[in-house]
Each structure stands twice: as C-alpha cells, then as structure tokens.
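> forwarded from #structure-qc
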C-alpha cells in the first residue's frame, strides 16, 4: 500500500510545482511584463497617450524634476485631505476599500489611499503614482449617484492614472505653465504667451488621450461593461441616486455627429477631458479589442470577433481627436 501511495505521489501534477516565494515573484513579473508594450506603458494604453508622452519626455530634465516635485506635492496633499475627508479602509466604507483593492490587484499596483470628501460635484481625481503616495479622492456627490458597479469603474479609472504614471505628467503641465509665467519678464509678453499656449495645447491633447487610457482601465476593472458606459453618461446629465438608465449606442452616434458638424467643438482644444459622448464611444471600441479580453477573458462571449489593438486605436482616434473631422462609417 505504501508503494502505491509513492507511485501516486510521483504522478501528482503538483509534485514538481515550485512553491517558494522567489518562484512566485518571478512568475508574477513574467505575467506583468507580457502586459507591457515595451515602452514602459501597459498594453491597454491609448496610442496617442504614448505618442505625446514621447514628445513631453524629450524636454530636458522636466520628467525627473516633475517626479520629484510630484512626490512632495502628493505627500502634502495626502495630509491635507486627511484633515477634511473620510479615509476608506477595512473598517470604514469597507465596500469601497474592497473595490480599490480589487482594482489595484487587477492592474498590478499597490492599494492606493482612498478618501471620500464632502463635495456635491460629480468628480473624482488622483494624485501621485504607484511609487509616490498614490491618493484617490472621491466626491460625495459622485459616491451617492453611482451604483456599486459604476463606482468600481470610477476607482478603476483612477487606478489607471496611477498605473500609467499620469500624475508626473500632470505635474509637468503645471511646471511648464509656471515657467512661461515666470519668464514673461525676460521676453515679450506676447511671445511668452504664445509659447505657453503651445505647451498648453500639447498637454491638453495628451491629457484627453490619457483619459481614454484610463477609461480602458475602468473597463478592465469593471464587473459589467455597461457600468463603464453609464459612468460617463451620468457625467452628462447628473443622474438620480440609484439611476440605472442604459446607454443607447445609436443615439450617442447621432449626438456625436451633431458635435462634429459645428465649429463650437473647437472649444474642446482648451479642455483636459474629451466630451462624455466621445469617451463612451471610445470605450465601446475598446470593448471589442483583443487586448481587453487578454485581461478579462471571462467576459468574452462565444464566437465573439475582436479587433487588434492597432485597429482599435485608429477607430478611437476618429472619436477622440478634436481637429479630425472624420465621421465613423
């Protein structure tokens, strides 16, 4: 009988499995590396986000300077928010804390500090990066009007900013604008104004692309894909508490075509966020992308056709780029 047990153990599928911590870490890193694009960004990042970051990285010393200042600013802001906001934790809003933990685990980042503050505007924001005091602030107005599934998408979006190191580039934007203001005394006011406007335009294009990247992170972290669409829809009309109105794709496309037919859309050039209609349509494109289902294979339906990342990015550009007057066919 003893010999039979030895033979069965030898045939066990787990007998040769490496269970030490070093092997686990190595395996985990290999999984994460496969999800990186080779440019230091996650494979789900919107291509325009990457392209404009390359241009920003070309500015000498600005990235390293922004990262150092971001660390100081994030630490100070965390302490300030701690004075006025409610810190989420296992014993305080445990459902929200669990959402943050789940999203962080899905994306492969550390669990961020999450606070809920008393503010009725529908907003949430992030400061810091994965290695610099990551902080997510959720306004009470947004918390009250989102369902649990929608709130998970909001937190997933903010975790996307952390995962993609966007906080450093946001700090870079503030530095460039400040530098333009400080240098006015050295050059003509008109010249420095033009230089600052050019930098602001560049950074706004990047910022709008970064929001598309993080909407993709929200989809990756979602419980249901429709939740991600409803978040941006509620940013349009406010929504009643607990509202679960579905998003009509054809109606959104008609609204998008109306936006593209007017020059008023050029006002978006000064905005850091795409319109909600643009964001929802871009999300719907990513929901048909092969990269999405590499992260969330359980959401793929049998026989569902998916597109490549390159094709998905090109289709998203049609919706997101303000100056590209091209309607989707």
């Amino acid at each position: 009988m003893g010999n039979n047990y030895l033979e069965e153990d030898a045939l066990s599928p787990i007998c040769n499995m490496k269970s030490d911590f070093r092997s686990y870490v190595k395996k985990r890193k290999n999984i994460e590396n496969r999800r990186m694009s080779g440019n230091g960004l996650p494979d789900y990042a919107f291509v325009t986000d990457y392209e404009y970051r390359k241009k920003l990285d070309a500015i000498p010393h600005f990235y390293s300077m922004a990262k150092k200042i971001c660390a100081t600013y994030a630490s100070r802001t965390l302490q300030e928010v701690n004075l006025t906001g409610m810190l989420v934790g296992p014993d305080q809003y445990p459902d929200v804390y669990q959402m943050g933990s789940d999203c962080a685990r899905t994306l492969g980042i550390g669990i961020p500090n999450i606070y809920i503050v008393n503010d009725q505007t529908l907003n949430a924001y992030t400061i810091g990066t994965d290695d610099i005091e990551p902080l997510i602030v959720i306004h009470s107005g947004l918390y009250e009007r989102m369902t649990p599934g929608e709130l998970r998408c909001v937190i997933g979006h903010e975790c996307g900013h952390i995962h993609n190191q966007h906080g450093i580039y946001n700090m870079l934007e503030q530095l460039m604008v400040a530098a333009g203001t400080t240098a006015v005394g050295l050059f003509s006011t008109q010249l420095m104004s033009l230089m600052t406007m050019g930098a602001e335009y560049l950074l706004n294009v990047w910022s709008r692309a970064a929001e598309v990247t993080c909407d993709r992170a929200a989809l990756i972290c979602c419980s249901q894909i429709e939740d991600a669409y409803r978040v941006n829809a509620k940013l349009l009309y406010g929504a009643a508490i607990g509202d679960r109105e579905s998003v009509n794709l054809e109606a959104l496309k008609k609204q998008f075509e109306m936006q593209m037919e007017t020059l008023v859309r050029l006002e978006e050039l000064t905005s850091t966020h795409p319109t909600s209609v643009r964001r929802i349509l871009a999300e719907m494109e990513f929901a048909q992308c092969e990269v999405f289902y590499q992260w969330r294979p359980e959401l793929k339906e049998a026989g569902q056709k998916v597109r490549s990342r390159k094709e998905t990015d090109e289709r998203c550009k049609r919706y997101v780029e303000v100056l590209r007057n091209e309607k989707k066919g």
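QC bot note: The longest helix spans residues 189-221. The domain at 44-242 is CATH 3.30.2010.10 (Zincin-like).
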